[in-house]
Structure formats: structure tokens, C-alpha cells
Amino acid sequence: MNYGNLFIITAPSGTGKSSLIKALLNSDSSISISISHTTRKPRSSEKNGQEYHFITIDEFKKMCNDNVFLEHAEVHGNFYGTSKYFIDKKLETGQDVITEIDWQGSQQIKLQYPDSIRIFILPPSFEEIRKRMIQRAQDTQETINKRLLAAYKEVKYAKDCEYLVINKDFDKALSDLRHIIKATKLRYKTQAIKNLELFTKLGVTNNDINDSIYK
Ligand code: 5GP
């Protein structure tokens, strides 16, 4: 039985999602991040294999045909995909995994992994997103405009997520994220599988565990 939890984090560009996740990972070594493949060109600060695996469109197409991806989508004119092998391997060995993907990918994964936890990070305002993208100084004006337009659409999908974090104050948002993760680790099935010996002593059977409505 696997007992790793899969967290799907979605947010419009410029919401501060990457900084939040980075801070979260720095303080919690039990969580791994799934590094996506993308056909987008690396930004000046990005390194291959660190933020993304940067690949060509032909490589991406081949990986799609080989069913490498758990989900894939076109976002802002580039292709992105999540490795199924990486996620499954982590979950099978009881490790928690975060994927940082768009709403299309989030919907695709939720259908295949109904126990996954979807978290949407909301910006305090669209103006704040615009300011952050300009400050980041890594995208052209055209890209910023494109991403701002997409942000208006993306926030509509927040209603599909189990949890919502508003990144108005970084520390508060980080604390909210940590609480969501902690609460998820305390769900019945996760606890039962992790503490199987105790549960067996208490007379709980594998069927009881599998029957639990909540993972
Ligand atoms: P960026 O190019 O700014 O790093 O990311 C652009 C968008 O692509 C973000 O919304 C990000 O969450 C999304 N994204 C990154 N990796 C994946 C992925 O593997 N699958 C999907 N569906 N979206 C992704």
C-alpha cells in the first residue's frame, strides 16, 4: 500500500508560488518536488534539471507517445509535462510529492489520483501579480500581458481545489501551506499505513483501512 501524499499546487504566474514552495522544501525534507519537462526556453537564472528539464518539441512529442507523462498541457504557448515514473516511485516508497502545475494538469492528475490534494495559491490582487512579474524582469512585456490575461482565467479554477492559500503576507501563506501538509499527513489512511503495526494490534484490518473514505 502506498502512503505518500501527492500535493498539486496551482497558481497564476507572479503569485509567489515558487518562492513559497522553495521555503517549504527547505524546511521539510520529507517532501520531494516533481521537476517537470518543458519546451520553454530557460530564463537566465534557470538551470537544466533544477527548475525544469528543458527539452525540444520533438523530444516532448516522443515522450508523449511513449506515455512518459502523467499529465501534459500547453501553457502560455509552451508544452509542460509531469513524469509518471518519478511521482509513482516516490509515492510507492511513502514519500510526499509536490507538483507545481497549471489547472489543466491539476484536473488530469485528480482524475487519476483522486486522493491527491489540490492547493490553489491566490495573489492579493492582479496589480500585485503585474508588479511581481515586472520586478522579476525575466519576461518580455508581451509575455507579461499574455500571462496576466491567463491569470484572470486561471483563478476561476480555484473553486475546484480542496485548499486555498492567499499570498498577501509571505510568512502567513507559508504557515498556511505547512498546516495543509501537516493536516494531510494526519488523515486516517496515511496514519494507518504508516503505523500499521499499531493498527494491527488494535484489531484494524487492511480491509478497514481500504474502506476508509478519506485517504
Ligand atoms: P513557468 O513557465 O512560469 O515556469 O510556468 C508556467 C505555467 O506552467 C505555470 O502555471 C506552471 O505551474 C505550469 N507548469 C509547470 N510545469 C507544469 C507541468 O508539468 N504540467 C502542467 N500542466 N503545467 C505546468
TrEMBL record:
It is found in: Cytoplasm. The keyword Phosphoprotein does not apply. It holds the Pfam family Guanylate_kin. CDD domains: GMPK. ATP binds at A11, P12, S13, G14, T15, G16, K17, S18. GO terms for molecular function: ATP binding; GMP kinase activity. Residues 4-182 form the Guanylate kinase-like domain. It catalyses: GMP + ATP = GDP + ADP. Its EC number is 2.7.4.8. Keywords: ATP-binding, Cytoplasm, Kinase, Nucleotide-binding, Transferase. SUPFAM superfamilies: P-loop containing nucleoside triphosphate hydrolases (SSF52540). It is an enzyme of class 2 (transferase). PROSITE patterns: GUANYLATE_KINASE_1 (PS00856), GUANYLATE_KINASE_2 (PS50052). GO terms for cellular component: cytosol. It comes from the Bacteria. Belongs to the guanylate kinase family. Essential for recycling GMP and indirectly, cGMP. HAMAP family: Guanylate_kinase (MF_00328). This is Guanylate kinase. It comes from Candidatus Kinetoplastidibacterium desouzai TCC079E.
